[in-house]
Amino acid sequence: MLQIRGLRKQFHVAGKEIPILDIPEWHVGQGEKIAITGPSGSGKSTLLHLISGIMRPDEGDILIGENKLSGMSEALRDRFRGEHIGYILQDFHLIPSLTARENVEIALARNRNTGRGERLELINHWFERVGMLERRDHKPSQLSRGQQQRVAIIRALISGPTLVLADEPTGSLDWETADEIAELLLELCGSDRHTLLVVTHDLRMAERFPTCRHIHEINEIHRRVRKQGGLAI
Ligand code: ADP
Ligand code: MG
Question: Is 216 in the pocket of ligand 1 (CB under 6 A)?
């Protein structure tokens, strides 16, 4: 469902071009659940930014299903992301002035032409699934970090994305809560319909996934830089 070919990305920093990613070929099948590990600075977040179309590669193609991101305008990529991709971040990014339910509702309202009654019923169902029905009218500041991440997970999944991307989703949680969140993500994305890519440097979390890849297995920059005798990034 995800195909990457000849992907290259470099950043321009202080007058220098710094190569970050070089991925000749990488395929992810429909319904796969993959953890991508690697040290800080190894290009994990950049890879997710490229796959989600937030950022453009310098070279290469990314296909999600039949859809080639490089052939789309920025507006089309934004629409495609809204309809097909769920994104979960380390720091939740909930709107502080809205309740948990309202944070989910604005994400849902963008995507569905359903009546409000039906939307609220669906939202209640999801809060129940993550064990937070009683907390749905609380503001983010009244919730624990683990609970805030549950709300962010609902927000990412409620519209039924085919591809779910999570960037260090347990990075700011204690280990017990991190375990719960990893478990919940795998459970909620359990169907074959959901493809789940999680980047993390938390090996404990990665071990729970059916497939775990180190970013250096996918990204050849590391090998190339080492071969040239340079510093590995
Ligand atoms: P990771 O998520 O694995 O920690 P990132 O993808 O965030 O790594 O970053 C990879 C490298 O690219 C880092 O060295 C980082 O400093 C650099 N980088 C990331 N984004 C930018 C940017 N917008 N401009 C310049 N350099 C960047
Ligand atoms: Mg990162």
Answer: no
Residue 199: what are its φ and ψ, rounded to 5°? -100, 140
Contacting residues for 93 by C-beta, under 8 A, at least 6 apart: 152
Q: Write down the pLDDT at residue 170.
A: 94
Single-letter residue type at 95: I
Q: State in Å: Cα 97 to ligand 1 middle.
A: 31
Given a cut of 50, the residues of the chain with pLDDT beneath it are 232-233
What pLDDT is recorded for position 232? Answer: 47
Phi-psi region of 168 (alpha: psi -120 to 50; beta: other; left: phi over 0): left
Predicted pLDDT at 233:
46
- Cβ–ligand 1 contact at 46 (below 6 Å): yes
Q: According to the model, what pLDDT value does residue 116 have?
A: 84
CB 225 within 8 A of CB 231: yes
Those residues whose beta carbon sits under 5 angstroms from the ion ligand 2 are 45
In contact, 32 and 93? CB cutoff 8 Å: no
**What string of DSSP letters covers 16-48?**
EEEEEEEEEEEEE-TT-EEEEE--TTSSHHHHH
The residue whose C-alpha atom lies closest to atom 17 belonging to ligand 1 is 41
**H-type alpha helices, the chain:** 44-51, 74-84, 100-111, 116-129, 145-157, 175-188, 203-206, 215-218, 221-227
Q: For a pocket test of ligand 1, which of 7, 8, 10, 11 has the largest count of ligand atoms closer than 8 A to its C-beta? A: 11
SS3 state at 231:
coil
